[in-house]
Write a structure and sequence with these properties.
The chain has helices at residues 12-15, 19-40, 42-51, 72-77, 111-127, 146-158, 170-179, 189-201, 223-232, 346-355, 384-388, 394-409; strands spanning 93-96, 106-109, 135-138, 161-163, 184-187, 213-217, 236-243, 248-254, 261-263, 268-273, 287-293, 304-310, 312-313, 325-326, 331-332, 337-339, 342-344, 359-370, 373-382, 414-418, 433-435. By secondary structure, the chain is α/β, with parallel strands linked by helices. α8 (189-201) links the parallel β5 and β6. The longest helix is centred in the first third of the chain and has 22 residues, at 19-40. The structure holds adenosine-5'-diphosphate and zinc ion. Adenosine-5'-diphosphate is lined by residues 97-98, 145-146, 217-220, 239-244, 306, 308, 329, 332, 338, 341, 343.
Length: 440
């Protein structure tokens, strides 16, 4: 804690470091990193050699432009461990993102990585209002998903109390909020609104709770949603961003100014590119966030394409932190949907549908928010033959499709069969997704 600044800062030395000093540190780390991956990850050695890049040629931060991008498919192609830079003896934790095309993306952490993650989570939690005295009700899922344990370790590092309640079981969440006096809540923004609704339904006055701050992330949300959460709970709602490939939550986090997320670029070096051309956009312009993990040991990544769209905000933040700020994530440059925190690609659903004889592969995905939870409806045409038979057994087909999709993506969806040719055809790219959640 540092009295010089209006709000407590976890690591004032790093978080308020002058920009030139930080650049020197970044360059030093970048040089080490390129040697490290060249020597320890065959995937990168091959890529560098193919492109004719030598680690010794990295002499300035701008030289990062000569390095290759890393894609999510590279991680999948090297499933599960081939991108790791250390032997399994040195890996002490394995996490995985919630799966895209069946197989999850696997990440491994050394002790040093867990320490880095705890450090950036401590920064995030403190900039979101957590202090040593706080009681943090952690309603992110514990498990392969990085949310739960990320918050857990960061809270412990600060010395606050963590309640490892994990996700779901709303009645218990409310009981703990009432009886344990939690002042900080961590979960997805949509779950916080669902919780607000249940608190109201139970006839509890939310302002009678001790809750003061919510640190919400893992899915896109808007200023309008923030307004609603802050009014209904009533708390200060803070945005936290991260992804398992980079470390988990804690890559960037808002401070009390609630005006952009400080990205911890002593560890995660950001670039914003045009997703089509791969070139840097002009300062302050929207583009795809690309991150290089400057200090990661288990699975270091060079220029990882997050697919998340944002921009670097100009100016200096009044909180005193010098880490640059990114804008809230405005969307994705691919067609990935995040449904109740799970990544879903329309292509996965298509893969299921083409295998089912009774339906034609004409479909549309409709996403809604009902009671603040995402509902994904799959509208799919039955084929002509089924349609001309007496329309019986349709329900059985719906159940079968629901079951198969659940097997594939791990979440439940609603399937509605429609007549042949009922799904609108398009001349160009089919409009597969109608997202009515109004997130942007
Ligand atoms: P999961 O296991 O849920 O898939 P991931 O680490 O793969 O976890 O999820 C990371 C993705 O979640 C990010 O790339 C981004 O698209 C989304 N995300 C995380 N935090 C935020 C946030 N604060 N705002 C918007 N999107 C977010
Ligand atoms: Zn700030």
């Amino acid at each position: 804690m540092n009295k010089q600044f209006p709000y407590p800062i976890w690591n004032a030395e790093m978080e308020t470091m002058d920009l030139e000093t930080r650049k020197t540190l970044q360059l030093y780390r970048l040089k080490e990193l390129v040697w490290y991956v060249y020597d320890n990850v065959p995937f990168y050695k091959k890529k560098f050699d193919e492109m004719g890049v030598k680690p010794s040629e990295i002499k300035s931060l701008d030289d990062i432009l000569s390095l290759p991008f890393t894609l999510k498919t590279d991680l999948r192609d090297n499933y599960p461990y081939a991108m790791f830079a250390v032997p399994m003896d040195d890996i002490i934790r394995i996490h995985a993102s919630s799966g895209t095309t069946g197989k999850p993306t696997v990440v491994g952490y050394t002790q040093e990585d867990i320490d880095t993650w705890s450090e950036v989570m401590a920064r995030s939690l403190m900039s979101g209002g957590t202090t040593r005295k706080s009681i943090v009700q952690n309603a992110y899922g514990y498990g392969l998903f990085t949310g739960g344990l990320g918050v857990h370790y960061g809270t412990e590092l600060i010395g606050a109390s963590v309640i490892p309640v994990s996700g779901g079981n709303t009645a218990r969440q409310i009981l703990l909020l009432q009886d344990f006096g939690s002042d900080v809540m961590t979960c997805t923004p949509s779950y916080s609104l669902f919780l607000a609704e249940e608190i109201e339904k139970a006839g509890i006055d939310a302002s009678s709770l001790k809750l003061r701050y919510g640190i919400f992330g893992a899915e896109p949300w808007t200023e309008a949603m923030r307004g609603e959460i802050q009014k209904r709970l009533p708390i200060k709602a803070i945005n936290i961003y991260g992804l398992s490939e980079i470390i988990g939550p804690g890559v960037a986090n808002e401070c009390q100014c609630q005006n952009g997320l400080h990205i911890y670029d002593d560890h995660f070096f950001p670039e914003i590119i045009n997703p089509e051309t791969g070139e840097h956009v002009k300062d302050g312009e929207m583009g795809e966030l690309v991150i290089t993990t400057l200090t990661k040991k288990g699975i270091p990544l060079i220029r990882y394409r997050t697919r998340d769209l944002t921009r670097i905000l100009p100016g200096v933040c009044p909180c005193g932190r010098t880490h640059p700020r990114i804008d809230r994530i405005m969307g994705r440059s691919d067609d990935m949907l995040i449904i109740r925190g799970v990544n879903v690609f329309p292509s996965q659903i298509e893969e299921v549908l083409v295998k089912i004889e009774e339906v034609a592969p004409h479909y549309q995905l409709i996403v809604e928010r009902e009671h603040n939870l995402d509902v994904l409806t799959v509208m799919v045409e039955v084929n002509d033959k089924i349609f001309s038979d007496e329309i019986k057994g349709l329900e059985a087909i719906e159940k079968k499709v629901e079951h198969d999709i659940h097997q594939m993506i791990g979440i439940s969806v609603v399937v509605k069969l429609v007549e042949p040719r009922a799904v609108a055809r398009s001349e160009g790219k089919a409009k597969r997704v109608i997202d009515n959640r109004k997130l942007q």
